[in-house]
Design goal:
The chain is built from twelve helices and eleven strands. With 324 residues, the chain is α+β, with helices and mostly antiparallel strands. The protein has a domain of 201 residues. The chain has a six-stranded mixed sheet, with helices on both faces. A five-stranded antiparallel sheet has the order 8-7-6-5-9. A hairpin with a 5-residue loop joins strand 5 and strand 6.
Length: 324
Amino acid sequence: MASKSKPQKPTGKHSNLVSASKYDVNGLRVLIPNQKGCKSLDLLECKSSISALKSFTRKVATYNQHVPELRDLKESDIEPKVRQYLLVIRSSFPHIVVSDEYGMARKNGRTNKRSFQGSMEPKTAAVIELNATLMNRLVDAYCILKAADSETNTRRFRNLHFRLSVTMAHELVHVYNLYLQYSSDEHTPPQITYGGYGDSVVGESGRYWEYKVLGGFVDMRQSPDGMEVVALRDNHREKCWRIKTVHPKNRFTELTSAIDWKNKFKDVFPAVAADQETKQLLLAQIVWLTGPKIMKTLMYNMSGQDLRGFALRPRTVLRQAHKS
């Protein structure tokens, strides 16, 4: 049971994810989580998620009949296809770039895809990016929780862990879309989306999955004292259900308007110039991150403190990938 020790506020300077090492290089930080302990995979494999992925598969097959692999897809083939993907992603988890650069300063996550032929190996067909600020906040929250085990500190850690776990699962749904359609040029159909995301050409598979599994898309902001807060938002972005506690016997959410949500809580991301938001990883970087050379780079285990901030397992491996 958590003690009554005084909760600590977030520190002004967030913890560094990477421990000092002679193997450090000036390049991208690339995480490879231990698949057996990855919370995002646990989310993808739950009953409601499998139902959501089946629904997504039906819709993609309906709207993208020009894709040969989907044209004759039978209903009896849908669940086996979903479960096969879950097995594939367990055995070949994509590399994860942790960065606030290349247009990631105001994004939770992003997926870069490459076309493939034959059987898909996600590690060679996709690269997932996660926001470094959120990752650092999560490590910071874990360190504070270890120093002072309190209800407030536990809630902060769980809010951040929930945010990043959903983000990772969200990105893995984008990888599933690639798994279904084989080509990086075949995007989520615009009819498949939620919360106003996407446009007339491209939908939003990750937000659709969040809606089908959680009942809304996940949004995170911060209170004036710097504590992160999480809410589920509706399709029209008019209502927010703030997640107040994870205790099953207490009230789980608090309904508020979108205006109050934005006025009461601040954006967790810093303001950046418009041209910075449009930047992406270079094609050469994606090719390198999905190619054979990265498997030969020096690697080492993250420290327990760094590791627990994301996967909560002692076997996550960190690889350093050069920018060029």
